[in-house]
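Hi R.,

Here's the chain you asked about this morning:
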Amino acid sequence: MANEALENAVEEAAGQQEDINQQDINQQDINQLRKIRIEKLDALREAGRDPFLVTTAAQSIHASEITERFEALEGSEVILCGRMMTRRDMGKANFIDIRDRSGRVQVYVRVNDLGEEAFAEYKKWDLGDILQVRGTVFRTRRGEISVHAAQLRLLSKSLLPLPEKFHGLTDTDTRYRRRYLDLIMNPEVQDTFVKRAVIHREIRRYLDERDFYEVDTPVLVHNAGGAAARPFTTHHNALDEDLFLRISLELYLKRLIVGGMERVYEMGKVFRNEGVDARHSPEFTLLEIYQAYTDYNGMMDLTEGLFRHVARAALGTLQISYEGTEIDLGRPFRRASMSELVREATGADFGSLTFEEARALAKEHHIEVAKRHLKGDILNLFFEKYVEDQLVQPTFVLDHPVELSPLTKRKPGQPGHVERFELFITGREFANAYSELNDPIDQRERFAAQEALLAAGDEEAQRTDEDFLMALEYGMPPTGGVGIGIDRLVMLLTDSHTIRDVQLFPTMKRVG
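And the predicted structure, written out as tokens:
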């Protein structure tokens, strides 16, 4: 390489100098730097080199490919585009870091290669600017794979300075509100959402290969049913009608089973007017799958296979770690009834208890029971207190009380229970599934019970859906259905603590 001694000298001192924009700055500094950058932009426009008039730019490679394919690329010319993140300025030669969607690569910039005029113009550019680099792949004396720039082109001007280098962007509220800045400064965040895209793709691949049809159903509905949740209300001006945002995908998808489509799924947003915490968001992504001529056992097999397929595709392994706990998705998921799990944890056998005995037992265990609660509700309260948090390895919790499951078939021989399961991992629910209730007379009675709960003050109880009941009266085959919270699945597979970490633009309270 020409003038190798200069390159060595620059590299030796590269880590000792930092661009002024990397220093800690306050809002007054930001305003001043923005003013300076706008003045630079005005000068570029006056010179006929407005970067915002650039409409396209050649790009032959991404940063990560240069590292991965170095032996084949060494000495070859490449063209890459990305954001200038750092600059080590040694006068007539610089090292800069360029980041694109795949990662970062170091670029060696020298006045002898660009020419005096082009180098002087480059020196006026700022961190955060988006550049095109044309140059040759090489390895520096210290062994870092880099690109020796022969030509630079400014593609877009950053008018605001990036957060300073050493502390970065760490305030979580700012990260969620300004996700674009979070993605720029924290590469691991982009990795989370790349994995999320893979998870979405592989869910579709898994189901499509099993002859399921992907469908779309309404977001605006007259009756927000299919789950126990408070809906959001909106108003349609042209129809002059109040509508709800859907809380579930279930009732429309089961109408399609009635219509003969047999295997359908939808992955889409649902909306629940509820609180916000680490696992709950008013807007989240739900996958629901329905298959005719099977039951909840078939859905367990499908769900277990889906989780394994997605984990293997996204992570390359079935042994994962979540918040320091090792989870094995490779071994068969445990299957146990809710009553069995409660009996193991507390010794209480709800199968032999009367309602009054169950209430008395709850009082002994300091579990608050409301007037509207029945025996099945008390069993569930015991499960939530003593069992749920202990289900770390994948566990299907089967055969829920009928009081909790208004859309589910009763279990033969156990009329107080239904053929339902929930999948728990790390003490959290990831899936909910039924042998779907297809008896329209029983379904009407279940809706009536829900209406009574609504009248008694349960704001999450479901309302009667007459059109859905009519659909059932035309006949729905035996069907299994499952709903899977995609956000929670992504949290598990990316080791993310809160649901906001896996939603690009989570719902936030307005400021100002």
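The chain has a mean pLDDT of 92.

Let me know if you need anything else.
M.
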